[in-house]
Each structure stands twice: as structure tokens, then as C-alpha cells.
């Protein structure tokens, strides 16, 4: 089956990523990946090939699939706690012709060693772990009416610690860990990453020049003792709604994002 052979169900949409290179089905009213997932995938930079990526909280698989499309030698595991999304991620891998090196598993960051072993997942085995976690504090507002959307968009305020701990557990020595989040979450991201990773790099993401950052990407290296760096910011839009040339190259052509 090719990515155009089957229309999405009424409860799903079919969305194009990296220009027309990827067609990804995702829930129409649940968790919906977009620009953040593509930016995070563009930062995946393993030091070897073939390499292994663990997409933590993968949803429909956008981060892992975008990274695999850019890096032909990359193998990816899409870890997703919601069974319906994990199944959809596997379908997307098949539809985009990469199921030989991309697979989804139904598990969470709290999975036991036995659960992970059942999926042939071993600690200290991934060259890169990437995460685009839920942005909202589940006790700070009214939960979404759609159960899948509520589960995917909100989590406890202290849960970033659990995500970072799991990423450190699964990343090999010298491997890369990446996370994207709202800019206001940077203190919590640093608290979670600093005890577990070194050579931390912070990349602020700006919607437009002369505005406050709307997102931050943090990168760490397991076992490194290099100091923290704050990188030059990345700007998404020129005047109006058009993308900058650098943003367009990432979002439409699958270019890498240096951090």
C-alpha cells in the first residue's frame, strides 16, 4: 500500500510534511503534530550510521518519521502510551514505506524493564532520544473534552523529570537527548536534564525577529561534562506570514537544524 492508496477515516486527517515527502494520518480532534515535531526531528544528529532513534511520546509518529525521511541510515522506535496512536504510527510507517526501519510500540516512560524487553528495547542502546511532551499542566486548566486530546496535551507539572530520567536510561553513553517545549518551561527542562546530561545546548525559537521566544529546544549528551551553551535563536517567519529561508528549508525540504 502506498501513502495515497487509502483515504483517512472520518475521525482522521491526512497531513503532508516535508513538502510532499511524508503523508501522515493523525486524529482530527486529538493530538495533532505540526511545526514543533518537524523542528525537533531536524535536530536529530546521530554520530554513526546506521543509528537508532527513540521517539518518546511519539503520537502518530511525526518526529520519528521526519527524522527517518531525512536520514536514510536511521532506524526509529516510536514509543507511545496510547494504543490507538501507537497503531496509527505503525500504519503511517507502512504507508510511507519505512516500516523496515521504523516501528511503533505501545508503552510509556514508566514502563518496567520487563515491558521494554518484550518490545526488544534495551537500556543504553539508542544513539538519540527525542521528545515533544504535552505542553500543559493537567491541574492548571480545564481538561479537553476529547479523552485522547486530554491525555496528549496535558501532564503533571513534575513529569518532565520522569521523561528525562527515561531518556537517560535509554540513551547510550555519548548519545544525544532532545526535547522541545514552551519557552516558559525552560527552568523545568534544565532541572530535568542537568543531572543526567552534559554539554547542554539551548536553542530559542522565535516566531518573528524582535519578539520573545515561543519555544525552546534543549539538547544534552549523556556522559559529557562540557558546559551549557545558549545558541543563537532561530526565527520562523519574515514580515507577514511567510517562513524564513532557513525555516522553509527545514519544514518543506527536510533540512537539518543545527543546535
Describe the protein in words.
The chain is an alpha/beta fold. It has one domain (12-253): 3-Layer(aba) Sandwich (Rossmann fold), CATH 3.40.50. Helix content is 28%, strand content 29%. It is built from 8 helices and 13 strands. It has helices at residues 35-42, 62-70, 83-95, 113-118, 147-153, 159-170, 186-193, 245-253; strands at 12-17, 22-27, 51-56, 74-80, 102-106, 126-131, 136-137, 154-155, 171-182, 198-206, 213-221, 229-230, 234-235. Strand 4 (74-80), helix 3 and strand 5 form a beta-alpha-beta unit. Helix 1 (35-42) packs across helix 2 (62-70) and helix 6 packs across helix 7 (186-193). The longest helix is centred in the middle third of the chain and has 13 residues, at 83-95. It is globular and about 50 Å long. Residues 138-144 have low confidence and may be disordered.
Output the keywords:
single chain; 259 residues; alpha/beta; nine-stranded mixed beta sheet; two-stranded antiparallel ribbon; 28% helix
Helix/strand layout:
Layout: E1 12-17, E2 22-27, H1 35-42, E3 51-56, H2 62-70, E4 74-80, H3 83-95, E5 102-106, H4 113-118, E6 126-131, E7 136-137, H5 147-153, E8 154-155, H6 159-170, E9 171-182, H7 186-193, E10 198-206, E11 213-221, E12 229-230, E13 234-235, H8 245-253
Amino acid at each position: 500500500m502506498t501513502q495515497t492508496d487509502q483515504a483517512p477515516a472520518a475521525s482522521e486527517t491526512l497531513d503532508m510534511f516535508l513538502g510532499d515527502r511524508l503523508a501522515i494520518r493523525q486524529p482530527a480532534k486529538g493530538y495533532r503534530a505540526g511545526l514543533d515535531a518537524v523542528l525537533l526531528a531536524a535536530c536529530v544528529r546521530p554520530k554513526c550510521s546506521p543509528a537508532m532513534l527513540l521517539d518518546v511520546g511519539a503520537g502518530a509518529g511525526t518526529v520519528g518519521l521526519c527524522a527517518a525521511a531525512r536520514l536514510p541510515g536511521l532506524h526509529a522506535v516510536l514509543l507511545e502510551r496510547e494504543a490507538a496512536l501507537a497503531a496509527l504510527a505503525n500504519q503511517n510507517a507502512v504507508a510511507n514505506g519505512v516500516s523496515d526501519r521504523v516501528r511503533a510500540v505501545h508503552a510509556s516512560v514508566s514502563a518496567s524493564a520487563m515491558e521494554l524487553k518484550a518490545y526488544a528495547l534495551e537500556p543504553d542502546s539508542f544513539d538519540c532520544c527525542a521528545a515533544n511532551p504535552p505542553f500543559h499542566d493537567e491541574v492548571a486548566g480545564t481538561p479537553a473534552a476529547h479523552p485522547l486530546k486530554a491525555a496528549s496535551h496535558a501532564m503533571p507539572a513534575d513529569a518532565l523529570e520522569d521523561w528525562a530520567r527515561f531518556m537517560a536510561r535509554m540513551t547510550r553513553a555519548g548519545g544525544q537527548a532532545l526535547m522541545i517545549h514552551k519557552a516558559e518551561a525552560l527552568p523545568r527542562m534544565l532541572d530535568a536534564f542537568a543531572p543526567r546530561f552534559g554539554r547542554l545546548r539551548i536553542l530559542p525559537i522565535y516566531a518573528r525577529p524582535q519578539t520573545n521566544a515561543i519555544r525552546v529546544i534543549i539538547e544534552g549528551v549523556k556522559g559529557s561534562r562540557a558546559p551549557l551553551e545558549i545558541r543563537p535563536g532561530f526565527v520562523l517567519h519574515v514580515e507577514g506570514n511567510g517562513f524564513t529561508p532557513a525555516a522553509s528549508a527545514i519544514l518543506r525540504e527536510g533540512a537539518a537544524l543545527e543546535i
